[in-house]
Amino acid sequence: MKFYMMHLMPYADLDLDYDQKHNSAWVTLPNSYYDPKKGAKLYNRYLDELEYADQLGFDGICVNEHHQNAYGLMPQPGVMAGALARRTKKVKIAILGRALPLLNNPVTVAEEFAMVDNITEGRFIAGFVRGIGAEYHAWSSNPADSHDRFHEAHDLILRAWTETGPFAFEGKHYQFEYVNLWPRPYQSPRPPIWIPSQGSSETIEWASHPDRRYTYLQTFTPVAMLAKYMQMYKAMAAGHGYEATEDQLGWSVPLYVAETDEIARREAQPHIENFLNKFLRMPKEMLLPPGYLSLNSMLGVMKAKSSIGTKQTIDDVMAKGMFICGSPETVRQKLEQYQSEIGFGHLLTLLQFGTLPAELTRKNMEIYANEVMPYLRDKTANAIPAAAE
């Protein structure tokens, strides 16, 4: 199993009483709540934390894209990846990912990702997403066009990376007389591609197709639903005549580890509950706008994300396996159990969440890296088949 530190870079200095006047930390929360001086310090603190993950021996570090919210301050994740590219030495850097349907020019992402891939000399992982429903409100983009725009942008980016230019591209949404990428990617024929998702069956089917075999990442989901979606990927792969490997499956989950179960719960509780009830707060119609998903996928995602928008406690999410918290022994046992039962090869831990302060984030990272990762790495060292890509 490979270990990654995922960072959302939230606005941790958020006035938590905002919800007395506003119903969401997304899109409609006035940006008067953002103090640039505090935000500047947070950005540099968060970059320091991701750089520290390199020193602690993580396999990779991950950033992502969200717009107009306090939950994640990375509307342009390539800025963060570029900053990290020169300051890290060993870890892979993953952008998970760019929201392709929102783009007017997908070639800019092909260029941006190729630049990071060159600067890191191949330590880059490309992530493509459709973007959650809130992004379509932020960009005034039609969610009903999401699938078509995603697939067309993806095809254009892959051709830009792998075909000798200049060539013309004529699609429904994007038209170019000249596609001629400078620079070309460092990795040949292209960087590995990962697909994070909330659990859309169409996305799982598309990612698992033998033409792609992309690594599929399930984000912030109860373990029961995680197992369902991982099995769906394996079943679809089998239907195409091949066996999916653990390298094609990943899980993103917030985690906190401390000296004992009691200390871990006490230290994490206010911060994970702020994450759940303040930073994730949004109405369902913002999360899942009409036309964004098929009916079948909508029903599944609504079940997996049913808790968003409702008041949750640390005990609620721990019971569902949506938050891993405890002593090193407890955390090791839970992760080993879930990995053994479900069979994912990439574990993306959110070691800073909500209002978790710098000193507790560093403590969390150190105990996890020193007392959890080595154990699980040894346990799974011979279990991961060769990468699919």
UniProtKB/TrEMBL annotation:
Residue ranges constituting the Luciferase-like domain according to the UniProt record: 42-340
Top-level lineage group: Bacteria
GO cellular component terms, A-Z: cytosol
InterPro entries: Bact_Lucif_Oxidored, Luciferase-like_dom, Luciferase-like_sf
Molecular function GO labels: oxidoreductase activity, acting on paired donors, with incorporation or reduction of molecular oxygen
Gene3D superfamilies: Luciferase-like domain
Pfam families xrefs: Bac_luciferase (PF00296)
Protein name per the record: LLM class flavin-dependent oxidoreductase
